[in-house]
Amino acid sequence: MDQIDYDSLGLMVGIEIHQQLDTKHKLFCYCPTSHRDVEESNFEFFRYLRLKRSEMGEEDRAAKEEVERSKKFIYKFYDTTCLVEADEEPPREINKEALKIAIQIAKMLNMEFVDEVHVMRKIVIDGSNTTGFQRTALVAFDGDLDGVGIATLCVEEEACRKIEDRGDYVVYSLDRLGIPLVEIGTYPDIKSPKQAKEVAAKLGMILRSTGKVKRGLGTIRQDVNISIKDGARVEIKGVQTLEILDKIVEYEVIRQVNLLKIKDELKKRRALVINEIFDVTSLFKDTKSKILKNKTVKAILLRGFGGLVGKEIQPNRRLGTEFADIAKMFGLGGIFHTDELPAYGITEREVKALKEFVDASEDDAVIIAAGDALRVERALQRIIERAKFCLVGVPEETRKANEDGTTSYLRPLPGAARMYPETDVPPVLLTKELLDVEIPELIVDRAKRYEKLLPKDLAYVIADSEYYKLFEEFADKIQPTVVARVIHSIPAELRKEGFNIEVLDEDKLRMTLEMIEKGEIAKEGAEEVLKIICKNPNANKEEILNVIGKVSNVDDFIQNLVNQKEDLIRERKEHAFKPLMGLVMKEFRGKVDGKIIAEKLKKAIEEKIKGE
Amino acid sequence: MDLIGKRVRIEAKGRQFEGIVMPSPTKTFVLKLDNGYNVGFKDYKLLEVIEEEMIPPSLPPLMHKEGLPNVKIISTGGTIASKVDYRTGAVTSQFTAEEIAAEVPELMEVCNVDAMLLYNILSENMKPKQWIELANEIYKSIKDGYEGIIITHGTDTMAYTSSAVSFMLSTPVPIAFVGAQRSSDRPSSDAAMNLVCAAKTVTSDLGEVVVVMHGSTSDNYCYIHRAVKVRKNHTSRRDAFQSVNCKPIGKVDYFGSIEWISDRVRRNERELKLMDKLEEKVVLIKFFPGLKPDILDYYFDKGYRGFVLEGTGLGHVSTDWLDTIRRISNESLIVMTSQCLWGRVCDRVYDTGRYLLEAGVVEGEDMLPEVALIKVMWLLANYELEEAKKLVKVNLVGEINPTSDYDRCLF
């Protein structure tokens, strides 16, 4: 597909953004909102969650009010988490700092506020919340962003971080649980992939303009709702970077269009999914295929599907991949289908035997799966259902975003969320004081101001930097481009070189800028200063100046030495390093780090050799 | 017109909203929108009340299984029995056996259940009157042939009620008190596991009154605590209940069986007998530095003849109290317990203690103050004063340990 006419396809897209807030503490307790390494966990415990059938939205409560005893969930506790995250203490009142940020954002989106905010419990039983529900509250509604309607803005608590999923148990980390989030959902007013990306980008820019949101991977997530005419509503979860948002929409449109084409073709062929699972283990008794060997192998027959199971519906994803996704959900490695066989160690003879066994003709497709008998049976049963739906169209489902912009099957669309009031948290009246928050300058407007001082691209980057305030502070004292280098360009370069620039916080950057301002270092010295801080985050100004001073002495000394010993270098090439190193160390031992000297000397010798 | 629970259409903030009217904790009008959220409006105009047909819930009848022991569950209220209505958010407590079966189907693999809703009261509102009625109800159920009794109870005063039943009722079958620290409408509630463990307990070879609650913060096991040795030692944790001054009787694995930890009274070891009188004019007084003995006079003048003192350390109150104690002790039973909770009272180490004993105070051994309170209530109602003074130091139902373990027993 070259040019897709989204209008005529009736594309409708809505996006939902989840952004972590950078508050002092969590939404319902006084724990910090800091990220922890699992290795730092000092305690773990486990729980089970239970859900009554009636809560899953079934009309007939009388039917089977069955309790589902779900998986075992293991939780990692830290010295920065408390009994509230462990569901061992009632929540505190809602964090007003978070509420105020949400109000600020809602104002920026021209939204209307409710008079009283009620915290709800949204039932979530995948274990990601120790309580079995996520606390969430609707704050504002009906906003507008460049013609796209903003339906709702909610404040909610972030879920646990998933560490590993072992099938029968899942390990979660409590550090993330309870970090405040804003959830902003648009109406399905978006009409093209490009617009989806633009709206998401602008929303992100507005959020960052508050200066009170977290940054970095995983701190913002986009869910996308996509549908086309005759297609179905599909929800795509967890798009972590904006870069692929347009691709996600485009690929989903392509997927739905292709599924509709497949439907038409199948109908033309009078295709039929046979409602039977064949045990074909015996056919592969002596197979060379490692995947099938010594396992239960079962097959299903899709009459009239020949050639279509192998048809690409998204880049590098075929209809067969959709079936394989389902198999993976049941803990299998995937499936094989006759459109791709013989391959993977399965011979032509085996394929022939398989087709004969299930009575498949040239026009048919056979799908096989191998593994634990019960799992194979259940997976194939579900794939039969999915294959039957190929004759109907596009199934409504929740899909997971892949890194390349394609998506994989996750689960059917959830029914309406089950919500009930969080009685432990009192409602909050949105008073004048609470609503009286200033609207911050937008990053784009700030960038316009900076354009007078910096090249256009850099102006935007600095305006969007979390250290833009440093720029404002120093731009009239030092050359603006130098300030931009210190707070942005140099750290970016150092990161590429492998330095840990996490330690370059606002204080460290300010110290560096002050050193330049006071003339204690030349502006060219900034890089060296930042390098020293990266290596030794605790170094104070005097220590840094000391090292810088000595470093320049070392440079001179090495240069002189290399010039003096030109003959030695010419003769022994790289091997001149050892004797020369001895000479430099004699002068600087105990004053300058040997590693730094070695680096510099090696470089000087190399340059000398090259210069020959 | 009462709109609560009705579907309505309103106008607020220049827009129309449809939803269900919710009970409001404040004066604001609260609407549950179709997206599930509750929102509050101060100014609104009611446009329409939309009639909806309600489908009354019904549950399948419960069949008794041949060969399983019959257990009676008596509910007195508390979080364990509560159920939330997802439409209105209201918490109800109907508590039929059918409902329990629906909530905790595993229970039906352990025993046949008959259920009865005796009370629906918060445990802080329980009174000796209810303890007596409960003891009678249990007595009747045991006479009816039930092989085990489960009492669901609010956790706050569970240990008081279970102690009262321990003294009033001599039982041949296990009686387990069980509760929940997280309400049962939450997916993470501890109610189901506690109930399952209680069911295993009351179908085992046990013949006394116990409390069965979470043994750790994980959903792995419950402890079986002797009712007269247990205390709620945390406001909110699942494992709030601890045996004090002794080990629990046993440990019930959620998915496994019971491991017996210490000596227990076996099934049918005791005969069924009810002595259901309690003297209500008994008081528990916690001493603190500076507290004047007037408080004793106050209660004595009101006719109180039972006094349990929660003294300091080994069992002391200020020597200022000696005169008053001497004055009232002939007509009263005054028992000394300790604020330390752990350890035994000994009033023969310091002079103050010796003076207190001379003045007529009785040492409460290693009894918990609350248990001593209940014991004195029971003794004064059923025995002459002099007899009661002797019996208070005698172990009757496990409330006093003859020896003190080295173990702090923080189970």
Q: Would you mind describing this structure in some detail?
A:
The complex is a heterodimer of chains A (612) and B (411). Chain A has 612 residues and is of the alpha+beta class. Chain A folds into three domains: 227 residues, no CATH class; 119 residues, 2-Layer Sandwich (Gyrase A, domain 2); 168 residues, no CATH class. In chain A, 37% of the residues lie in helices and 22% in strands. Chain A has 18 helices and 24 strands. In chain A, strands 1, 4, 6, 7, 8, 11, 12, 13, 21, 22 and 23 form an eleven-stranded mixed sheet that branches. In chain A, strands 14, 15, 16, 19 and 20 form a five-stranded antiparallel sheet that branches. A four-stranded mixed sheet of chain A has the order 2-3-10-9, with no helix packed on it. In chain A, a hairpin with a 2-residue loop joins strand 17 and strand 18. In chain B, strand 7 and strand 8 form a beta hairpin. Chain B is 23% helix and 25% strand. Chain B is an alpha/beta fold and 411 residues long. The mean pLDDT of chain B is 91. In chain B, helix 3 packs across helix 4 and helix 4 packs parallel to helix 9. Chain B folds into three domains: 45 residues, Roll (SH3 type barrels); 205 residues, Rossmann fold (3-Layer(aba) Sandwich); 110 residues, Rossmann fold (3-Layer(aba) Sandwich). At the A-B interface, strand 2, strand 5, strand 6, strand 7 and strand 23 of A face strand 4 of B.
